[in-house]
Specification:
Elements: E1 8-10, E2 13-15, E3 19-21, H1 37-48, E4 53-60, E5 72-73, H2 77-91, E6 96-102, E7 118-119, E8 132-133, H3 139-155, E9 161-164, H4 170-176, H5 191-194, H6 196-209, E10 215-220, H7 231-243, E11 248-252, H8 260-263, H9 275-284, E12 289-292, H10 298-306, E13 312-315, H11 317-321, H12 325-330, H13 345-352, E14 381-385, H14 389-400, E15 404-408, H15 418-421, H16 431-443, E16 447-449, H17 456-462, E17 466-469, E18 473-475, E19 487-488, H18 489-493, E20 502-507, H19 511-522, E21 528-533, H20 545-557, E22 561-563, E23 567-572, E24 575-580, E25 583-587, E26 592-595, E27 599-601, H21 605-609, E28 614-617, H22 627-640
Parallel strand pairs: 3-4, 3-13, 4-5, 4-6, 6-9, 7-8, 9-10, 10-11, 11-12, 12-13, 14-15, 14-17, 15-16, 17-28, 19-26, 20-21, 20-26, 21-22
Antiparallel strand pairs: 1-2, 18-27, 23-24, 24-25
């Protein structure tokens, strides 16, 4: 048996394997701070899927200091009873469970209630609200709150706790990091002084809960900032932390404000983002070391543990994508694991829009109780037109439920617009979705006919009971003078048109426009310059921050000129004329103009067949959106029919 699936001891807690589920604030929380049915269903499904230990989302030590809106907490004895019922259910699967205990501190949303968030020092938090420096006299009360929360966790049946002290974030993180801590008393200045509050919290929890009650410490192996803590700082701190009661170190990295793409690494970040620092810390620690950060590939995780580079792996988004990640890997069913492509669209992106998190490849995340996978009452012949992500996702679910599914695809291969999306720099990971869905369709007996145009004659010949149109969208060109001289961004990304150099204008500063700009520069074979022209006041609107931050940095390094607040009026020879708040402005000297202003739904068959066949339209063919919405619609229809 591979080491990943061997038992693992942390103080008094024995875990059946070396996999942990990372805490991820996903917007499922209850107003009363307890675990509701939605959250319970979500975690229970992962416990059933074989994960060894679940680390519950941020749990505030103070019920009056919420983290993100509705925040988990131990409010009273009644809430502890509710938690005990939940932990009993998790334990029934042989899974351990611990809460991530924290005082939100500077990251509290208390400012919205007229209470300034507290911190080690005065500085603007992530929401640009000024924090209040805690007085030294207030700190014993903070320490007591941590001890009380630890005791409540133990009474509620949790198997231990995790303390959040990473990312120069929340209260303990703000004290530990020189980026935030500017104090001039004994809680500031030196590394050990900055760690003093953490030491006191550890001592208090151990005294209250006992030495055998495990404490895992989440810490940044490196804050990856010239002003922040380094891995050498953390290595020096390890013996002190062990002395004060840390039983296991979880190594993360980066900081929340400056390096958000290092905390939740998305496109362009390496897998096992924090492994280097974790290895260094393991070399000096006597307690177990586990690591988190873009752990997506089960085989790689097995290899890292076999090599004893770390003692355990903390998996987040990959368990959103597939709750059976651990069990499938244990059985060697790697190709059946629904892959996380590190896009951040459903998990991070939906949260930034104040919506419950989801997952592109698994829209059932957070909706486990809404869908019961049962065989179809009647097996039907279903024709799916289009083998993009929506068409393949629908075909997979329908065939899995027992329907006979044929997919007609007019191109030579599946994937639709994802074939273009994965060609942009740093986005190759997107291709994993299509590889997976094609393999799943094969496994469930879906027939895919390539280079097949679905018209009325073809549909009549196949004689389906149901037709699903997933024909996607077509790019649009700006309706301005000179539009015939524009090049569609899709023709660049597909390789149909090559621009090896020159001075290129890309009209449209959304995700496709930015990707096209990067693609042009990456594939240039001579002097190349790109100007992005966007009507809005900023580029990259709607992009996940964890992708946008490094992308903007790359554009700056490539010296891409960005023109915002500029509505294109006309294109004449080499000049683009735009309308701005200050009037019309001409931008001359372009050798090529590329248009990336969006797409429109394309479903010409619907009107032709809707009165003859039971017909549904999904994905971009219905309404242009992201892959998240396309797969969600496919799943909902797949469970409905």
């Amino acid at each position: 048996m591979k080491k990943m699936y061997t038992p693992f001891q942390i103080a008094g807690m024995e875990i059946k394997n070396r996999t942990f589920m990372a805490p991820m604030s996903l917007g499922y929380e209850s107003q009363d701070g307890t675990v509701n049915e939605k959250m319970a269903g979500y975690w229970l499904r992962r416990a059933k899927g074989g994960v060894g230990c679940i680390i519950v989302d941020a749990t505030s030590v103070d019920p009056n200091v919420p983290y993100l809106g509705n925040t988990l907490c131990f409010r009273d004895e009644e809430s502890i009873k509710k938690y005990k019922s939940f932990t009993d259910q998790i334990h029934a699967y042989g899974c351990k469970i611990i809460p991530q205990i924290t005082h939100p501190g500077p990251e509290s949303v208390s400012a919205f209630y007229g209470i300034p968030p507290v911190a080690s020092s005065v500085y603007p938090n992530a929401m640009a609200q000024m924090t209040r420096e805690l007085a030294k006299e207030e700190l014993p009360g903070i320490v007591a709150l941590y001890a009380k929360a630890g005791k409540a966790a133990k009474d509620a049946g949790f198997d231990g706790i995790e303390l959040h002290c990473a990312h120069a974030y929340m209260l303990l993180g703000s004290f530990l990091s020189p980026l935030r801590n500017k104090r001039t008393d004994e809680y500031g200045g030196s590394l050990l002084n900055r760690a003093r509050l953490l030491f006191e919290v550890l001592d208090a929890i151990k005294e209250t809960c006992g030495r055998e009650f495990p404490i895992i410490l989440r810490m940044s192996g490196s804050e990856r900032d010239p002003q922040g803590n380094t891995v050498e700082d953390m290595k020096r701190l390890i013996p002190y932390l062990e002395q004060h009661g840390v039983d296991c170190f979880e190594i993360s990295g980066g900081t929340q404000y400056e390096r958000c793409n290092k905390i939740i690494p998305c496109h362009g970040e390496e897998e096992f983002t924090n492994l280097k620092e974790a290895r260094e810390i393991k070399a000096v620690a006597t307690k177990p070391v586990i690591t988190v950060g873009k752990i997506l590939d089960a085989k790689l995780a097995e290899d890292v543990l076999e090599a004893e580079e770390v003692d355990g792996v903390v998996i987040g988004r990959a368990l959103l994508a597939d709750p059976d990640f651990v069990e499938k890997a244990k059985e060697g069913r790697y190709e059946e694991i629904a892959p996380c492509a590190a896009c951040g669209v459903g998990c991070v992106g939906e949260q930034t829009k104040r919506r419950p998190a989801s997952c592109v490849i698994n829209p059932l995340a957070g909706r486990e109780l809404e869908f019961e996978e049962q065989p179809a009452k009647e097996a039907k012949k279903i024709l799916v037109v289009g083998a993009g992500i929506a068409g393949l996702a629908a075909a997979r679910i329908l065939a899995k439920r027992g329907h006979h599914v044929l997919v007609a695809e007019k191109e030579q291969k599946a994937g639709g617009q994802l074939n273009l999306a994965c060609r942009a720099p740093f986005k190759q990971e997107i291709s994993k979705w299509i590889v997976y869905l094609k393999a799943e369709c094969d496994r469930y007996g879906v027939e895919i006919r390539y280079e097949t145009l679905a018209d009325q004659a073809m549909i009549k010949e196949t004689d389906p009971d149901v037709v699903i149109l997933a024909t996607g969208a077509k790019p649009v060109l700006l309706p301005v003078d000179g539009k015939e001289e524009m090049i569609a961004a899709n023709d660049i990304l597909s390789g149909k048109i090559s621009i090896p150099g020159g001075n290129v204008a890309v009209i449209g500063g959304g995700m496709v426009g930015i990707e096209t700009a990067e693609y042009l520069l990456h594939h240039s074979r001579g002097a190349a310059k790109v100007t992005l022209i966007e009507m809005a006041e900023s580029i990259g609107q709607g992009m996940v921050p964890n992708n946008l931050v490094p992308t903007l940095k790359r554009l700056q390094q490539e010296r891409v000129q960005v023109v915002t607040g500029a509505k294109v009026k006309s294109l004449e020879q080499d000049t683009v004329t735009v309308e701005t708040a200050a009037g019309e402005v001409q931008h001359p000297g372009f050798t090529h103009v590329v248009c990336a202003v969006g797409s429109k739904a394309w479903n010409p068959l619907y009107e032709e067949i809707k009165d003859t066949y039971e017909t549904y339209v999904i994905g971009d063919a219905r309404e242009v959106a992201q892959a998240l919405e396309a797969v969600r619609a496919a799943y909902e229809l797949g469970y409905q029919l």
